[in-house]
Write a structure and sequence with these properties.
- The protein is mostly helical and 255 residues long.
- It is built from ten helices and no strands.
- The radius of gyration is 24 Å and the shape is elongated.
- 21% of the residues are buried.
Amino acid sequence: MQAAVRYRRILSGSLILVVLLAAFAAYAEPLPLPSLNIGVGTATKPADVAVTIQIFLLLTVMSLAPGLLIMTTSFTRIVVVLSFLRTAMGTQQAPSNQIILALAMFLTFFIMTPVWQQINREAYQPWKAQQISQDTAIDRAVKPVRKFMLSQTREKDLALFVSLSKLPRPKNADDIPTLTIIPAFMISELRTAFQIGFLIYIPFIVVDMVVASVLMSMGMMMLPPVMISLPFKILLFVLVDGWGLVIESLVKSFG
């Protein structure tokens, strides 16, 4: 039981560290780079072994830092919708994966900035000034992230993971563990992204159907409709300012 509680604390601390690294790159003052020395020696007491195990656990969790950043922010919904958009247009590798990931990352920073600013103001700066303890800073830093995830999570998905975890029925949102909120938030984001992707597909499918019908009526059944419909889909997307509409809809969907 103590090991499980300790692991949860390490995971929560790593999650907050990931958020802090992303948030304070633009807000925190420049800090001198610390030196780190790691050596292997003989343990003289059991406490040394426990500390070593904690360090290994922390390094293991930190290797999952990109995943933690993806699981607790708006990144999932954005990158899935942009992938659907590229597939619906049929442009193969345009825009490339690097461009989609970069756009999703900076849109994530844009959307999550208020949350990270709140963490900086209420948790990091007081802890840096030694006004609060590390445990208090972690508790304060987790709250804005939990609030964001809960605002985007469906009650049905949340109830599913609460029942799967076999926890007592929570009285309010504060009683729900963070490790239960994260997977519920993930599947809610995927559901919302697929809904948006379906709506994106509709106009492009209409263009494909019209082009295919015209080609069949002209007896040009050997000509692939995609070759003719692709320029029209790109033209339609540009004329309606498709990128602006998609990005605006994505950002407003987190409001």
